[in-house]
Write a structure and sequence with these properties.
It is a single chain. The protein is of the alpha+beta class. Helices cover 31% and strands 13% of the residues. It is built from 19 helices and 21 strands. The strands form five sheets. The chain has a seven-stranded mixed β-sheet. Helix 9 packs across helix 17 and helix 16 packs across helix 17. The longest helix is centred in the last third of the chain and has 26 residues.
């Protein structure tokens, strides 16, 4: 017979065990019976709303001290709101049952929808921790599911494209799934990701490649794996790398893994050479090393791991699994949607080999024409080129104060209209060159041929109250200069004769950016719709929705910002310059080794966007008699009698917007109202003679050339 000491020891051991919570469905029932929302409960427990959802769906469990606090709350609710009408789990005692409180008039036990029930314990998803059963197929948390069908899960990647690893070994995936990741070294993490995690994403094009799985490390996870919590140095943090003699890099090398040339930085790619069609590559991102730049992912790095996974998961589903900055991802998306190669059959042997994929940029980098290159490019330096350069950039123009009328100066407001992803809209159905440039002297202009033309447009007479469509400064050209095809075609559209002196043209052309445009446009429109900004809103409703959309859901707001960063950064990276203090003019730099280093394509996008802007400005002047005060990139400022763009935009008597000018709406290329109080160029307006007391609204950032 056991002694008293043994019995007390056993009882003490039971008391020291973690408190046991009621089943997930009961947790949700108690919260609903108490009339408390998940958001309010998350605030009380100092956690995220997604974590509370996970607790109530059985996908994860709270840890101490949150565990004890949550149990205390549930016990209190259980005493106030006992379950009724459900089968008893144990025999009922002989004592009379406790009568129900007279004030309780609702249903005894709210039914939990079948889609939210927990999967049976005997059939969990493969690598899921026992205490965190995998979430079964459910409806998405996001309203976007109503607008676009969620893609079917690829059986090779049952747990989605990525996971966010926390220091306790919890790997938070998409749709609230939590995996158990018992690793302590980076090589072990790579092995686990490839063999056990079930992470990855299918290719976006039949001739492309599957997306490598992404593991995002929190600060605590990085430290647990032997990495420093922060990277410090004189360079920008995104340029910092671990030194070659760091223990983690030695571990990676010893395990026969390799790092790409960019080394182990905020975004590190670890791989082994592919065997056959099987890729062995894992992408890592370290949150505390500023992997998620605040400009492109506002607030994301400060979110809970589950919320970071949600943000990146939505982006991966709608755009691409992140592979670096949004600029890098924008460029990678181009290649993923237009793979450089495809399988072709060798006519002599009958074997299938890799061949060029029509419509793509191919596998080899291409030298630009001298006027399309940067001044430090080897093509320019080694050839001694002095013939000038293409200067297709976004607008930075302010109207001369002498051209302001008294009526304009007396108007109390200056209202800024910002075009939704204007450069994305310009990429639609844009014909660009696919082959190397050929040099021509005195060619006949053809608006269908992409290239660079040396033309004198100084004779074109336009209203000085509008910026010139031919220069980014808005100033009238003073002589011959290099222009992209769209700019010259616009001069011809305005009725002027164009006589090119010489040109660099491309014989092969195609709408290379079309699939890129379509995917990003859908991502942008769907995400805006999730935030309450839909196409069916009236103009007044649209302005009200835009005023509040960033507060509706911070996670989706971060996704929207990342999509916009993908557009601008991807286009900018087509002309990425050299980096580092050691660079000397005439030397090559890493970006030149990419087939996607194509400054001519970037110039085509910006040229078309600037021409589109001038066309709208001209139409607005014809319809309303209004002229802009300034234009910066894709934002235009107008004098206005009121604070709303509806006070000056052209509307028909029916109330519908007039075509041809600026129109409000969520679609790329349509306008919205935006704040610019911090923009220096708005201050410049006031310094040039405008009323300093004027209220100024509107604006956006200039196009970035990439990181």
């Amino acid at each position: 017979m056991a002694s008293e000491e043994e019995l007390f020891a056993n009882i003490d051991a039971l008391l020291e065990e973690e408190p046991q919570l009621p089943p997930p469905a009961e947790r949700a029932r108690l919260r609903e019976a108490a009339g408390i929302t998940q958001v309010r409960l998350a605030t009380a427990l100092k956690t995220s709303t997604q974590s509370v959802k996970n607790y109530e769906n059985g996908r994860s469990e709270p840890k101490s001290p949150r565990l004890e606090a949550y149990q205390r709350l549930l016990n209190g609710w259980a005493a106030k709101y006992p379950a009724h009408g459900t089968p008893a789990a144990a025999p009922v005692p002989a004592a009379a049952p406790q009568p129900a409180p007279e004030t309780f008039t609702g249903p005894a036990a709210p039914e939990v929808p079948a889609a939210e029930t927990v999967a049976p314990a005997e059939a969990p998803a493969a690598p899921v921790a026992p205490e965190r059963p995998a979430r079964p197929a459910t409806s998405s948390r996001r309203p976007a599911a109503k607008k676009a069908a969620k893609p079917a899960t690829d059986p090779r990647f049952p747990h989605g494209p990525l996971a966010v690893l926390d220091g306790d070994g919890s790997a938070y995936g998409v749709d609230g799934i939590v995996l158990d990741c018992p690793v302590t070294t980076v090589p072990h993490l790579v092995e686990w990701t490839l063999k056990e995690s079930g992470l990855g994403a299918p290719k976006l094009h039949r001739n492309g490649k599957d997306s490598d799985p992404l593991i995002v490390l929190t600060a605590s996870a990085a430290v647990k794996l032997g990495l420093p919590e922060r990277l410090e140095g004189h360079e920008q943090r995104r340029s910092l790398r671990l030194p070659e003699d760091h223990p983690v890099i030695k571990q990676v090398t010893k395990a026969k893994w390799q790092l790409t040339q960019r080394g182990f930085g905020p975004w590190a790619r670890i791989y082994r050479r592919a065997t056959g069609n099987q890729r062995q590559c894992v992408q890592l991102a370290v949150l505390s090393w500023d992997a998620l730049d605040e400009r492109s992912w506002p607030g994301a790095s400060e979110m809970e791991p589950a919320d970071v996974a949600r943000v990146l998961g939505i982006y991966a589903q709608r755009v691409i699994t992140p592979r670096g900055s949004t600029a890098v991802s924008g460029l990678e998306l181009m290649t993923a949607l237009r793979p450089p190669t495809r399988a072709v059959q060798d006519k002599e042997t009958g074997n299938w080999v890799s061949g060029h994929n029509p419509g793509s940029l191919g596998t080899d980098p291409m030298d630009p024409a001298p006027p399309e290159a940067r001044p430090e490019h080897p093509v320019v330096v080694h050839s001694g080129w002095t013939g000038g350069f293409l200067n297709e950039e976004a607008y930075q123009w302010v109207r001369d104060v002498s051209l302001l009328s008294d009526e304009e100066c007396l108007l109390p407001w200056a209202v800024g209209l910002d075009l939704n992803t204007a450069f994305l809209a310009a990429a639609a159905r844009l014909t660009v060159g696919l082959s190397a440039p050929d040099h021509f002297h005195a060619p006949t202009f053809n608006p269908k041929i992409p290239g660079s033309w040396l033309v004198d447009l100084s004779h074109v007479e336009l209203d000085p109250r509008l910026p010139s469509p031919f220069t980014p400064t808005g100033e009238r050209p003073t002589g011959p200069a290099w222009y992209q095809t769209h700019t010259v075609a616009y001069a011809q559209e305005l009725g002027y004769n164009v006589a090119p002196i010489e040109a660099y043209l491309r014989r092969e052309a195609g709408a290379y950016l079309d699939p890129w445009h379509d995917r990003l446009k859908n991502a942008y429109v769907d995400t805006l719709a999730d935030l309450g900004v839909t196409k069916d809103l009236t103009d007044l409703e649209f302005l009200a929705a835009m005023e509040q959309h960033k507060q509706a859901d911070p996670a989706l707001a971060a996704v929207l910002a990342a999509i916009k960063g993908t557009v601008k950064g991807g286009i900018g990276k087509l002309r990425e310059g050299p980096q580092g203090k050691q660079y000397r003019d005439g030397e090559t730099w890493p970006a030149l080794q990419r087939p996607t280093w194509r400054p001519d394509i970037r110039a085509a996008v910006i040229s078309k966007a600037r021409v589109n802007m001038h066309r709208k400005l001209s139409n607005m002047a014809k319809m309303t008699g209004l002229y802009p005060l300034a234009v910066l990139s894709d934002c235009v400022v107008y004098p206005s009698p009121g604070a709303s763009p509806m006070d000056f935009l052209p509307y028909a008597t029916s109330g519908k917007p007039q075509p041809g000018g600026f129109r409000l709406g969520p679609t790329p290329g349509l306008a919205k109202l935006e704040g610019v109080q911090e923009m220096a160029w708005a201050v410049d307006l006031m310094e040039q003679g405008l009323n300093p007391a004027r209220h100024i609204k509107g604006g956006d950032a200039v196009l970035d050339e990439g990181e």
